[in-house]
Each structure stands twice: as C-alpha cells, then as structure tokens.
Design brief:
This protein folds into two domains: 1-40, no CATH class; 58-135, no CATH class. The protein contains three helices and no strands. The protein has helices spanning 58-69, 77-96, 103-135. α1 packs antiparallel against α2, α1 (58-69) crosses α3 and α2 (77-96) packs antiparallel against α3 (103-135). The radius of gyration is 24 Å and the shape is rod-shaped. The structure holds zinc ion.
Length: 137
C-alpha cells in the first residue's frame, strides 16, 4: 500500500509509516478540517508551533504582550505606547520579509496599544485637570 502522508510504498496495514512516522491510513482529502499533510513551502519552519508564534519577529511578539498587558488601568498607558510603536515596527519588518510572520501579533499590539493609549491617556489628563482645578480653588 501507499502512505497517504508521504506516498512511500509501505507494508500493508501498517499503523505507522516507517518512512515519515505518520498514520498511513489517514487520507488528507477526507478530513479537510484536520489536514495531516505538512505545508511544502516552509522548509525553514523547524519549530513545532508551525509559525503560530512569530519567534523571528520579536518586535511583533513584544508588541502583542505589551498590548495585552496595557489593559492594566492607568499604568497600562506606559505599556500601550511602546506596544503601538513596536507593533508598527514589527508590521514593517513583516512586510519587508513575510517569512518572519507576526502580522497578527503586530496588529493586536497596534490595536490594543492605540485603544489603551487613548483610554488611559484620557484618564491621566482627566486626573491632571482634576488635580489642577482642586489646587487652584
Ligand atoms: Zn509516510
């Protein structure tokens, strides 16, 4: 029989393909929701995550985490600003070299960064105005 994963000729009814270690019975065309075939066009992608986490785009990755943590009230303002800046830098790196990925992480960093920068910025300005109006009275 032929292995569905790597097309190698293997002994009949093998549970595991001796060539590629995959399940030779699994027909990739029968299960489109769980594709077993590996993308051929990414030989450099050695990590098991399959490029979900953009290790090669640290700016986008840092922007993502800064963006998430910038939700912390008021102090998050100081995380939102670098999240926005790093997100834009990471997106620019990604556009220059699509192989490093990270556009989603950069986008989340930019989105959260922008929202929380405006939000906490408004809160900080409100606190300053409140402080000043109290001291001047
Ligand atoms: Zn195989």
């Amino acid at each position: 029989m032929k292995c569905f994963a790597c097309q190698a000729e293997i002994p009949d009814y093998s549970a595991v393909c001796p060539k590629c270690g995959d399940d030779p019975q699994a027909n990739p065309f029968e299960a489109p929701t769980a594709p077993r075939t590996r993308p051929v066009s990414t030989p450099s992608e050695g990590d098991a995550t399959g490029g979900i986490i953009p290790y090669k785009n640290p700016k986008a990755l840092i922007a993502y985490y800064l963006g998430i943590f910038s939700g912390f009230p008021v102090i998050g303002f100081f995380l939102a600003v670098p999240a926005l800046v790093l997100g834009i830098m990471g997106l620019r790196d990604r556009n220059r070299n699509p192989a490093i990925k990270g556009s989603i992480h950069a986008g989340i960093g930019i989105g959260c960064g922008a929202i929380f920068m405006l939000l906490w910025g408004a809160v900080i300005i409100g606190m300053i105005i409140n402080y000043l109006s109290n001291t001047w009275q």
